[in-house]
Amino acid sequence: MVVRKVKLGGCGRTVEIDESKFGRRKHHRGHRVEGQWVFGGYERETGNCFMIPVENRTAETLLVIIKDWIKPGTTIISDCWRAYNTLNNEGYQHLTVNHSLHFKDPETGVHSNTIESSWRHSKASMSNYCRKKAFYAGYLAKFMFTKHCRSHKLDPTAELFKHAGILYDANNKDNMIFNDGDYSDNDDDSDDDDDGNDDGEKYVGNDDDK
After folding, report:
1. Phi and psi (nearest 5°) for 158?
2. Is residue 95 helix, strand or coil?
3. Quick one: where's region Disordered (predicted)?
4. How many other C-beta atoms lie within 10 A of the C-beta of residue 71?
5. Considering 25, 35, 174, 204, which has the largest number of Cβ atoms within 10 A of its Cβ?
6. Residue 147 exposure: Cα atoms within 13 Å on the Cβ side
């Protein structure tokens, strides 16, 4: 997939991050989910976001994406998933909310409700598609493009042609990145539970919201 890359955040800005599993409950029951992990970030001040299919939720996988998409100095808000434990040492101010206790910290007011809402909307936008892993990057790109046009009151057709022109202009290659959505790692711990502060497998499917 080819995407226009705009880094989120910076000093004085806040980005919510989260990972979620898109798919269906195995045999339509129980907690186990078959599907695709997606990692995303949402900048509160601008509404800009990214969503990237990933093979696992290890620190090695997610930190590469965070550094690639979020500027140093950003305040990052997340749940208590252990992969984020070193963010304070990576040039970010890291705040957490413990979702096993509450969705908004009653003392600090910290929450990640915006990215959580984005998962629900992106899930709904895919409800009529055949959810094959190979196509998730395209599904997510369509959702983000539509969201961008709606948020900025842009005409989708005009915006599509504008970015198509930028995409295929050889003089603007420096503005593009080529991303196949594969931030895979051989060590997949997506089925492991964490330290109890958050749900080991976050489900986004047709039956329940995340």
Report:
1. -65, -40
2. strand
3. 179-210
4. 16
5. 204
6. 21
Domains belonging to the chain, first-starting first, are: 2-204 (3.30.420.10)
Q: Kindly report the pTM of this predicted structure.
A: 0.68
> pLDDT per residue over 103-120, tens digit each?
787 788 888 889 988 888
- List pLDDT tens digits, range 147-175: 778 877 888 888 778 877 776 765 654 44
Q: What's the token pair of residue 124?
A: 């709904």
3-state secondary structure of 106: coil
| CA–CA dist 137, 135 (Å, integer) | 6
DSSP 27-93: GG-SS-EEEEEEEEEEETTT--EEEEEES---HHHHHHHHHHHB-TT-EEEE---GGGTTGGGTT-E
Buried b (16+ CB within 10 A) or exposed e, 189-200: bbeeebeeebbb
